[in-house]
Design brief:
mainly alpha
């Protein structure tokens, strides 16, 4: 019986090794596909670049290379004022739990800003803040969310975030938060 246990352990070990090796190869291929697509972007051939980036994003979804391809594709769409297409290209990348999810969510929020869908942009910024690894990124995303809420006319949501940011006197956005709170609370002068 011990021999069978040993064989099973060895087979499990080999299976795990093959899985990790396969993931490593997939990641390397994703990076190569992304780099190849960037060459199309650099050459100025946007139709080819878009095609290559779409292929890399779809084929290698869930890898950093695939996410970077999605983000580069979204930026191209945004430059062409095709915000909805850019947002659509980021859907998988923003849902992925990888290293680049924070950046993908920020980019998706920028697309919603381009469409002037302020509440959706603010929600994406807040989602980015929730997953940010660093306090500075979290604070920055929260400030972007507050700006988006303010642009969309949601004074209550903007006030809540700005009040939190203003409470940290050493915070990067404390001064801006105090100014923004003044803007929100200011009443127009009656003439």
């Amino acid at each position: 019986h011990l021999a069978w246990v040993g064989v099973v352990i060895i087979l499990i070990g080999v299976g795990v090794w093959f899985y990790f090796r396969s993931e490593s190869i997939k990641s390397q291929r994703a990076d190569a596909a992304y780099e190849a697509a960037l060459q199309s972007v650099s050459s100025g051939n946007l139709p080819l670049a878009q095609s290559d980036l779409k292929k890399a994003a779809v084929r290698y979804a869930g890898t950093n290379g695939g996410t970077e391809a999605s983000m580069a594709l979204a930026k191209i769409y945004y430059q062409q004022d095709k915000y909805q297409e850019g947002i659509s290209s980021l859907t998988t990348a923003a849902a992925d739990k990888g290293d680049l999810q924070y950046e993908a969510r920020l980019l998706m929020a920028a697309g919603y800003e381009g469409l002037q869908k302020w509440s959706q942009a603010a929600k994406e910024y807040e989602d980015a803040a929730a997953i940010a690894r660093f306090d500075a990124d979290k604070t920055s995303a929260r400030a972007m969310a507050a700006r988006a809420y303010q642009m969309g006319g949601d004074k209550a949501a903007a006030t809540k975030i700005w009040t939190d940011l203003a409470a940290d006197p050493k915070g990067t956005f404390a001064a801006e938060a105090r100014i923004r709170l003044g803007e929100i609370e200011a009443a127009p002068i009656k003439t």
